[in-house]
């Protein structure tokens, strides 16, 4: 009597493995979407533009790095973020921890840096009636 040998169907095994992988990927996509949606609704993701300063400088003179800008602006308060453009543009965005710290920094002269608020306070005196 012939002995029956089990021979697995390779195509069926491949399909089952692909299905397992697809289920894992779909689960991971759903998890990532949940994370992104929760961040969009988070108030931490909103940037208060009154705390952000646009800093620019001339080609002549000192060339600044993120670390150097952080050091300079930390004299006015806590620096949350420094985001630099490419070297050719020579500007950066500096986010301070408070509006008061940003106002202090914007009112000072630091070498060849031009410092302006990304968005001025609606309560600042911008009228020409003075």
UniProtKB/TrEMBL annotation:
Q: Where are the transmembrane segments?
A: none
Q: Which InterPro entries match?
A: DNAJC17_RRM (IPR034254), Nucleotide-bd_a/b_plait_sf (IPR012677), RBD_domain_sf (IPR035979), RRM_dom (IPR000504)
Gene Ontology MF annotations: RNA binding
Asked whether the UniProt record includes Repeat among its keywords, one would answer: no
Q: Which UniProt keywords apply?
A: RNA-binding
Listed CDD domains? RRM_DNAJC17
Q: Which PROSITE patterns match?
A: RRM
Which SUPFAM superfamilies did the record assign? Answer: RNA-binding domain, RBD
Q: Where is the RRM domain?
A: 53-130
What's this protein's name? DNAJ heat shock N-terminal domain-containing protein
The organism named in the record is Solanum tuberosum
Q: Give the taxonomic lineage as stored in the record.
A: Eukaryota, Viridiplantae, Streptophyta, Embryophyta, Tracheophyta
């Amino acid at each position: 009597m012939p002995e029956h040998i089990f021979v697995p169907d390779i195509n069926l095994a491949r399909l089952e493995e692909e299905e397992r992988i697809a289920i894992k990927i779909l689960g991971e996509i759903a998890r990532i979407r949940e994370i992104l949606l929760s961040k969009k609704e988070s108030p931490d993701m909103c940037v208060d533009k009154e705390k952000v300063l646009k800093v620019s400088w001339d080609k002549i003179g000192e060339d600044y790095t993120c670390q150097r800008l952080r050091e300079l602006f930390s004299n006015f308060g806590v620096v949350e973020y420094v985001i630099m453009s490419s070297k050719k543009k020579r500007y950066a965005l500096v986010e301070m921890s408070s509006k008061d710290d940003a106002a202090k920094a914007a009112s000072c002269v630091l070498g060849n840096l031009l410092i302006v608020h990304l968005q001025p306070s609606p309560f600042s005196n911008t009228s020409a009636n003075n």
